[in-house]
Amino acid sequence: MNAFFAVVARDLRLAFRRKAEVLSGLFFFVVVAALFPLAIGPEAVTLRHIGPGVLWVGALLASMLTLPRLFENDWRDGSLEHLVLSPHPLGLLVLGKILAHWLVSGLPLVALAPLLGLQFDLPSDALGMLALSLLLGTPVLSCIGAIGAALTLGVRGGGVLIALLVLPLFVPVLVFGAGAVEALSSGLGAQAHVSILLAMLLPAVFFSPWACSAALRIALE
Amino acid sequence: MTMRWFYYAAPQTFYGLAGRLWPWLAALALALTLAGLWVGFALAPADAQQGEGYRIIFVHVPVSWMSMVIYLAMAFWAVLGLTFNTRLSGMMTRALAPTGAMFAFLSLWTGALWGKPMWGTWWVWDARLTSELILFFLYLGYIALTSAIDDVRRADRAGALIAIVGAINVPIIYFSVKWWNTLHQGASVSLTRSPSMAQLMLWGMLLMALAMWVYTLAIVCYRVRTLIIERERHTDWVQALPEVAGAKA
Amino acid sequence: MRWESWSEFWFMGGYGLYVWGSMGMTALLLPLEMVQARLAHGRALALARAEKALENS
Questions:
Q1: Which end of chain A, N or C, is surrounded by fewer C-beta atoms within 10 Å?
Q2: Whole-angstrom Cα distance, residue B102 to residue C8?
Q3: At residue B191, does pLDDT exceed 60?
Q4: Which chains have at least 3 CB atom pairs separated by less than 8 Å from chain A?
Q5: pLDDT tens digits along A179-189
Q6: Residues of B whose CB is below 8 A from A146
Q7: Domain extents for chain A?
């Protein structure tokens, strides 16, 4: 367990040293959220309608931006091999890296989204559900995205390739995440959506480290 | 029985087997296609609601089925490849992918052409078409990943992993898209609702589906032979092949 | 035989564009795929022959 926390702490420390990388993902989110009203028009009715979807897609793309760096830097300086060869279960260490990635790239989106939601004239209960759905959904994005990052380690065209691999797999999270906000707004209630998001989160957290370990070993041998 | 399988798992033996098989499979596929088209276009009656337009199902349903069957086959060979580390498994998965992607594209194309006269728009976000679109993306992802990695073994294994992850996700994706679709569209005409299909319509469809399946077997056999030559070209047995040694096969 | 004439067959009850658009794309892509497979096979054989030439040289 100590190894797990050590990896999390290390990755967090490294991320804080490279604040620009982290912040650029967040700024991307802000910019994308601003682009849609500019493209579609400022009518509040329309914006309220597209808001949850736009913010969810923006969060999805923003969290994907930082995926290539999840394993790449460690791979470049050789510390990834140390992780793989260490006596600790690789899955646990990978989970630590995924957690650190989410804390730095996903959680800030959860905090930022309600603020951006105000730009879309979303009511406060919708903002709350938006934050909740992102809170449950962004970890899943980190988990699934990590698999893509591990598979494409050192491959040319990495960032776009990860997107191509991973975006189709994100669809269920997107559907239920954005759907939760819309269900709440239309009065249908979002319990089912939230339950399903939880039901996706738990297997993702268990399955992803295992798949990532396999992918890393494939990439490193 | 297991000995037999491992015997054919060697590229050299499979090369010979596939070489003997594919011409017959191709001929069979052609015969089935002609039979299916005959039944579908010459014998089957017009549909009560959709008139002659329904005849698109004679390609749409077979290619849709195949796009899904092929992905499952890819996942099967992927699991086999990662478990037993056989070279042939990786080649099978790679050989299947382009055909699967093509069928997925055809499914979307014919689906759109079917949808336009029936529903008035070239694209409908119905659950099945949308899932098919995502399946198409999964195929493209596999092809992109395996093409981008230079080391053949690594590419095979990475591709196998993404194929398996994709296969696990397909039911989840389908379920979520179905949910999403019913929420937004309400009751809508399903592309495959055909409660009482005339016998001949069903036969036409089945013949075409079988034809596509046999075609896939043929082309995969052929493609794996190509991959074997590419990858094993430095071995003695490949160099000794008549096609390579000089005498034109 | 269901069809009275060839023109009726092509017209397909008004759905001609859609039915033949579908059949046509299928009839285009499948042979294309076969051609592509054949060409790839040829390239592989050429590679193998080049390998042999390299060995012998």
A1: N
A2: 31
A3: no
A4: B
A5: 999 999 888 88
A6: none
A7: 2-220
